[in-house]
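Figure 2 data, in text form.
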Amino acid sequence: MLELDRESGVKNATDVLTVEDFDAVEFWVGNAYQAAYYYQHALGFKPVAFSTLKTGNRKFASYVMQQGSAKIILSAPYSPSSEIAAHQMTHGDGVKTIGLTVRDAGKAWSNAVDRGAKSVLEPVTLQDEFGEVQVSSISTYGDVIHKFIERKGYDGIYMPGYHQYTSPLDLPENGVTRIDHIVGNVNWNQMDPTIQFYHNVFGFDNFIEFSEKDIATQYSTLRSKVVRSYNQKVKMPINEPAKGLKMSQIEEYVNYYHGAGVQHVALSTDNILETVHQMRSQGVEFINVPKAYYSDLTERVGHIEEDINALSEHGILVDRDDKGYLLQLFTKPIQDRPTFFFEVIQRKGSEGFGKGNFKALFEAIEREQEERGNL
């Protein structure tokens, strides 16, 4: 059962489902081969494994992209009647599966179902010459699922069914080390039920909450709450729209994604200036931050180690909390629909999510919305 902090009244995260960290995030896309090219050449992910017709997979093509410990899977259908094709037709390219590394995939599944989760896949053991992996999965918001992955000392490149991929090009990585957090967008009045799901099923606690007063511009606003695992490695903010003068970014997402889904994945780096520089030079487009943002940066956030002129050149945002500061920047949507994007983040002690940057960030996003005719 969930435990209650007697002083704060906030539920403490408990180790209910043996979740240890993020595993691979799987996107269902229209063309996995071409998507893999973009992820390698623009974002710096290396293709390390694949499952296609060449490996005996007659249902879909799939490529595992990795940078540091961050893994992205890109999967595309062979048949127009497949579940992947239906998902891609409705949502466009988007996240289907948030993989979670667990100590016991059977226990994770049974405890989740006992606590009210809907099963997608009962525990199954996959085997090959490198060992075995046990997987199971449950539904969460929208069409997104959580896959529980227990590797049992597996020594292969990813998991059974995938073969090692040898790329024709050996391109440098861009400094991404791991997945920091994953953000979900839900429709009107669905944030609290979704947060409650993570409390009840996962034992996650409510880490931070942002009201419409915290996240507001002249035109639009939203609400957000963050849940996290007992070891604080898995953090998932959940956003919902709030009433404003014009369409919020969350409404735009839901309208074009046709439902709830993953809005962005935050990628950690130890040198955001270098990571953003490399990504920009390889064609990644980031949101535009006005130069005026940097005029009082030191006054707002105090002393930082980075050169402010360099931060201004790349449009990198800075925020501080009582634990330290962070640096962050957001790409523009990486597909035709104004839905999914990436965040690049470097933490220097801060455990927050850039609350002090919300106004500048959302004004930048609104400028993009206005260009699309959606503000």
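Caption note: Residues 219 and 364 are 12 Å apart (CA to CA).
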